[in-house]
Amino acid sequence: MVVLKNLFSSIHQDIYQLNLNLQKMVGAKHPILYAAAKHLFSQGGKKIRPSIILLIAKITTSNNVILPQHKRLAEITETIHTASLVHDDVIDNCDTRRGIETVHNIFNSKIAVLAGDFLFAQSSWYLANLNNLEVVKTISKVITDFAEGEIRQGLTNFDMTISIDDYIEKSFYKTATLIACSCKATAILSHCDKNTQNDFYVYGKHLGLAFQIIDDILDIISNTDQLGKPAGSDLKNGNLTAPLIFALEENPKLYQIVNQEFQNQTDINKTINIIKETKGIQKAKDLAEEHIQLAIHVIKNKFQCHNTQTLMLINDYIINRFN
C-alpha cells in the first residue's frame, strides 16, 4: 500500500508552505466569515490535487522547477475544492466532514453558503492575478461545471433509470473537471504545446473519475470513523452511484427499497448489505481500474522521469484506498 507521506517527499516543503498560504488566503475582514473559512483549512486533508499540480509542474519544466505561478495554481485549486465541499455539505445536510463538524453545523447554512461563496470569490481573484487568460478560461469552467453537476444530481435523485454513462458524466462535472482542468492549466503555465496540455487534461479527467468511483465504493463499504462522515450518505440523499447501479442490474429487490427513498436507517443498512452480496462493488472497482489505466496510458511513455513515476504511484494509491 502506498503511503502518501513518502509519496510526496519531493514536494513536502511546498505542501507545507501551501498550507500556510491557504490560511492567509482566507483573511476575510468579517470575524465569522474568517472563522468559517479558517475552520475548513484546519481540517487538513490529503492535498492530493495540489500535489498532482506540483508534480506535473516538475515534469513539464526544464530543471524540474516549480514556478511561483504553479504554486499559486495549487492553492487556487485547493480553495475551489474546499469551497465546493462546503456547498456540498449544505446540499447533502452532512453533519461531519473528515471527522470534524461541518461549517453549517457549527454556524448555520447561511454562513456556510457565504463562506463557500467567499472562497470561490477569493480563488477567482487570485486566478485573475496569474495574468494568464488561457488559465483563467480553463479554471473558470470548473465552477460552472460544479453547478451543472449539482443540478444534474439533484434532478436524478432516486432515479433508478440512471445509466452508468449518466453516472460517469455527472461524476465528471462534480469531481473530475477540477483535476482535469488543473492538470491542463499546469501545463499551460509551463508553456507546453497544445498536445501536451491536452494529454494532462485527459490524464486528470480519468484520474478524477477513478477517484470519484472509489469514493462512492467507500461510501458503501466503510464505516463512519474511516470516512469522516456518515456511511451511506449518498444513498440517504438519493445519489445513486456505481455500486448501486450495478447491484440493481443483479438484484431487482433493490428497486422496491430505493423507490421508498430510504425512509429509515434500516433501509440504508439493508441496501448496503444487498449491494455487498452482489458483484456491484467489484464491478465498480473494475470501472475505476479502467479509468486509472486510461490515465496511465496517456503519460506513461511520453513523460519518463522520477516525478512521472510518482504520479503512477498516486494512481496506485487512489485505486487501493480501501485495501
Please specify the SSE layout and strand pairing.
Blueprint: H1 4-7, H2 12-25, H3 31-42, H4 48-60, H5 68-92, E1 96-97, E2 100-101, H6 103-106, H7 109-128, H8 133-155, H9 164-189, H10 194-221, H11 224-227, H12 233-236, H13 242-250, H14 253-259, H15 265-277, H16 280-299, H17 306-319
Describe this entry's structure for a reader.
Pfam families: polyprenyl_synt (PF00348). GO terms for molecular function: metal ion binding; prenyltransferase activity. This is Prenyl transferase. 74% of the residues lie in helices and 1% in strands. The chain is mainly α. It has one domain: Orthogonal Bundle (Farnesyl Diphosphate Synthase). Strands 1-2 form a two-stranded antiparallel ribbon. Helix 3 packs across helix 7 and helix 4 (48-60) runs antiparallel to helix 17 (306-319).
Task: List descriptors.
single chain; mainly alpha; Farnesyl Diphosphate Synthase; two-stranded antiparallel ribbon; 17 helices
Q: Taking strands numbered 1, 2, ... along the chain, how are they ordered across the largest sheet?
A: 1-2
Tell how many strands the DSSP assignment holds: 2
What is the radius of gyration computed over CA atoms, rounded to a whole number of angstroms?
Answer: 19 Å
Terminal Cα separation, in Å? 8 Å
What series of H and E elements makes up the topology? HHHHHEEHHHHHHHHHHHH
What structural category arises from helix and sheet content? Answer: mainly alpha
Q: How many structural domains are formed by the residues?
A: 1
Q: Specify the CATH homologous superfamily.
A: Farnesyl Diphosphate Synthase
Low-confidence sequence ranges: none
Most strands sheet: 2 strands, antiparallel
Kindly identify the CATH topology.
Answer: Farnesyl Diphosphate Synthase
Helix content: over 70%
Helical region count? 17
For this structure, what is the CATH class? Answer: Mainly Alpha
GO molecular function: metal ion binding; prenyltransferase activity
Keywords: Isoprene biosynthesis, Magnesium, Metal-binding, Plastid, Transferase
Family: Belongs to the FPP/GGPP synthase family.
Protein name: Prenyl transferase
